[in-house]
């Protein structure tokens, strides 16, 4: 295996050495800009391709070749998504497509059965009129915490569920808590396997039943270790003002739910769109299976395009300060599957 990888690096090095001088100079400048913005976090989160031997020149050529390959993918993305921007100045730019997809693949559980809409929990009145006329953005209020970073742990499901619970509790009580994702990673073995993925909607039920500790009492460590950790039961769980979990499906019900609170959603993110996203409204996604859990925090319109605003858990340096906008009004499962399986906890007013 080592000889194979070493040979691959030598081949890559030769490829990089064959880059025309002017293009190479541009790539060197791009790589320097990438290192300045993402280098430290990328090293901590396992986002650098591994070169054996630690020879500086070989490693540099490998990175230049990766950057060149990434830049070659951008024109097709821009053509398919004229209302969005894409760039190699993203945290994941030096990962190959397969590496990025594999990283997402461990974050999510098995395919769930197709959801039946819970009609009694959804207000269907004037859905299209409300969606077209208005906008909602929960990030402009006081009930959404700053964007977090799951690091090199497939724990997106815990960030999605925790964020929805934090917001629901805040809307019920007026107090925004910073709850512990690590507690779910280490302790909720019913709804997931920590860094190996889980169910964000099912985790909401666990949170409602058990309560959740504060981050300061149970800090997040799996992002750097990549390990689930041992469940600790010494912290004090907060009693939260949330009730049963409501599972819905479709863009209309998602829009209606967002009029009340942020909503957990599953999306298809293991693709070039999410790997190189810089900003704007995404209007084309490949159409594969969902592989990532996030939080829908609002909807609106920009330059004639309706969108859902989604909060990610890849840090604030990704996308629009940690957020992405997905076209709204495409029907079916929604853009990047955003409307396929939303869920939210009922707000219990005190």
From TrEMBL:
Residues 132-346 form the Peptidase C1A papain C-terminal domain. This is Cysteine protease family C01A. SMART domains: Pept_C1 (SM00645). One of its GO terms (molecular function) is cysteine-type peptidase activity. Pfam families: Peptidase_C1 (PF00112). It comes from Achlya hypogyna (Oomycete). The lineage of its organism: Eukaryota, Sar, Stramenopiles, Oomycota, Saprolegniomycetes. Keywords: Hydrolase, Protease, Signal, Zymogen. The keyword Nucleotide-binding does not apply. Belongs to the peptidase C1 family. InterPro entries: Papain-like_cys_pep_sf (IPR038765), Pept_cys_AS (IPR000169), Peptidase_C1A (IPR013128), Peptidase_C1A_C (IPR000668), Peptidase_C1A_papain-like (IPR039417). CDD domains: Peptidase_C1A (cd02248). Residues 1-16 form the signal peptide.
């Amino acid at each position: 295996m080592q000889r194979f990888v070493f040979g691959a690096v030598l081949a890559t090095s030769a490829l990089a050495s064959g880059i025309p001088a002017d293009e190479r100079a541009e790539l060197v400048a791009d790589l320097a800009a990438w290192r300045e913005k993402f280098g430290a976090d990328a090293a901590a989160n396992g986002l650098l391709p591994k070169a054996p031997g630690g020879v500086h020149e070989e490693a540099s050529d490998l990175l230049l070749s990766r950057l060149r390959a990434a830049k070659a993918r951008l024109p097709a993305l821009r053509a398919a998504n004229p209302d969005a921007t894409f760039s190699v100045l993203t945290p994941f730019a030096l990962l190959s497509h397969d590496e990025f997809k594999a990283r997402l693949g461990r974050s999510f559980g098995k395919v769930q059965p197709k959801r039946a809409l819970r009609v009694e929990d959804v207000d269907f009145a004037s859905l299209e009129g409300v969606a077209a006329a208005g906008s909602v953005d929960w990030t402009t209020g006081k009930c959404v915490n700053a964007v977090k970073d799951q690091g090199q742990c497939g724990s997106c499901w815990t960030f999605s569920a925790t964020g929805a619970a934090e917001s629901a509790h805040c809307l019920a009580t007026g107090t925004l808590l910073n709850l512990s994702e690590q507690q779910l990673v280490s302790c909720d073995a019913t709804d997931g396997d920590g860094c190996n993925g889980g169910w964000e909607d099912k985790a909401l039920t666990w949170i409602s039943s058990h309560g959740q500790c504060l981050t300061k009492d149970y800090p997040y460590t799996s992002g750097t270790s990549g390990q689930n950790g041992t469940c600790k039961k010494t912290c004090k769980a907060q009693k939260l003002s949330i009730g049963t979990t409501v599972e819905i499906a479709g863009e209309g019900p998602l829009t209606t739910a967002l009029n009340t609170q942020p909503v957990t959603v599953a999306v298809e993110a293991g693709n070039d769109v999410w790997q190189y996203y810089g900003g704007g409204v995404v209007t084309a996604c490949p159409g594969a299976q969902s592989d990532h859990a996030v939080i829908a925090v609002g909807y609106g319109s920009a330059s004639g395009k309706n969108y859902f605003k989604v909060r990610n858990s890849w840090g604030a340096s990704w996308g629009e300060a940690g957020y992405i906008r997905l076209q709204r009004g495409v029907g079916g499962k929604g853009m990047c599957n955003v409307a396929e399986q939303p869920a939210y906890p009922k707000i219990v007013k005190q």
